[in-house]
Write a structure and sequence with these properties.
The protein has 68 residues and is of the alpha+beta class. Helices cover 19% and strands 28% of the residues.
């Protein structure tokens, strides 16, 4: 919800979700839109990480993660 602080580090719940996009160009378009809205983007080995106001992470990638 709006204006709710991030959950404590030891709380149960979702920490992140991954959005697999068709191409690196699609990722860059989303990153540009996020940055224009004042949302920071950070690069990681898994892709580009965006965080919502509650610090839930959205990972943008063009590679399907390995399952298992």
């Amino acid at each position: 919800g709006e204006n709710i602080p991030p959950a404590p580090a030891d709380a149960l719940g979702m920490r992140y979700f991954t959005l697999v996009l068709p191409s690196a160009a699609d990722i860059e378009r989303l990153v540009e839109r996020a940055q224009a809205a004042g949302i920071a983007a950070e690069r990681s080995a898994d892709g580009v990480v965006l965080r919502d106001p509650s610090q839930l992470m959205l990972i943008l990638t063009d590679r399907m993660p390995a399952l298992g």
